[in-house]
Each structure stands twice: as C-alpha cells, then as structure tokens.
Amino acid sequence: IALDKRTGAEDAYVFELANVSASNKYYDEAAKAYDYLIGKSKKAEYYNLASQQRMRMNYDRFIDDGTLDTVRAKELQTLFSQTFATLGLTAEISDLLIEYAHLLAFYLNQPAEAIKTLNDGLAMAGINTQQISAMKAELSDVYVYSGDLWEAVITYSQVIENNKANPLGDDVKFKKAKLGYYMGNFSWAKAQLDALRASTSKLIANDAMELSLFISENLETDSTA
Asked: What global pTM score does this model have?
C-alpha cells in the first residue's frame, strides 16, 4: 500500500496479497488491503473484484468461527445486501449468491428466501453450465432442509446429469444416495453407494463404503433363534 501511494501501479500486488492473507485466515490484514482498493474509486480496476472478495472473506470468517450467532448472521446478511446493491445481480457474483442462500437457510432459518435467491440467480443472463450446477446443488440442499424431498431428488438428478465426471457430480451423487437412505430406500441407496466406491474422491469413496457396509449389515436377515 505504501508503494502504491508512491507509484500508483501496485493494485494487482495489493489484491494478490489480500487474497493470500484471506486464504491463510489473516482476515484483518486482508480486510485492510481490500478496503484500500475499494476506497480508491468505483471506477478503479479492482473495485468490483475487491468488493466480491471482501464479502467472500467476511462469509468465510463467519463460517470458520463455527458459532450459531444470529446477531452476527444478520449483520452478514446486511453486508450481502449492500454488496449486491453495489455490484448488481450478475453472473460474476453467482458464488456470492450461493453463500448468501446458505446463510439464509442454515443460519437464519429462511429456506423460502434462500430458494427465491437461488431461483433468481438461475434466471440471470450469462451464467454458464458450471454456475448453474453449483446453484442447483445448493438449491437441492435447501429443499432437503425445507422438507421438500422430491424436489431435492429431482434437482440433485439434474446436477448429476450435467456433472458425470467431476467432483461436484460425485458429491451430489453421495448426497442423493444419503437422501435415499434417510427416505428408507435402502437397497437403492446401497446400489448408488457401491457405485460411488470407485469415486475419484477418496473422501467420498470412503464415506460411501462406510454407509454401504452399514446398510448391508443391517439389511441381513436376523438369524438369532
């Protein structure tokens, strides 16, 4: 920042430093750098990027704290609203919409508002297939939370269809299989879990194997006399 005040040509380095600081959870240092870039001008090259990353950092900081503090959650909701008012609803902020919807549903118990937010996001011009899949994955989770299980199944299936060979597809397949398990479709869930045991993600493969074995053990006929 001191160098930029002398040369006026260090914005990229300030932004990079902010991102590195945020990813390593040096939140105060990151905030100082983002705020410096935001404070320059709304027409400055890094204004939008710094505003987006500043909001994402605030969200990550809240999640990292691991507390169900409703007051802080409402404060974060206000910051999201201010950011959207400043940047507008565009394809570039789709990740922020997902985080905002997650906050609404799972921290503020407003699933209906979260669903509306995600559907508004899906209607935005210019969003690509990857962004649509990410929003639908979150939408499915919110449907589960709100008790609309069949909508969740349908939306999970749409995400899987468009992500047959990537980590998001595997993650959603596991969620759909777990949903089947909790809905009592044990044999179907086990078949899906067995297929996931070959997943490229070791964590998902291990979780799938564990639940599959649990189902197998408890589906077997009780041979006790």
From this structure: 0.90
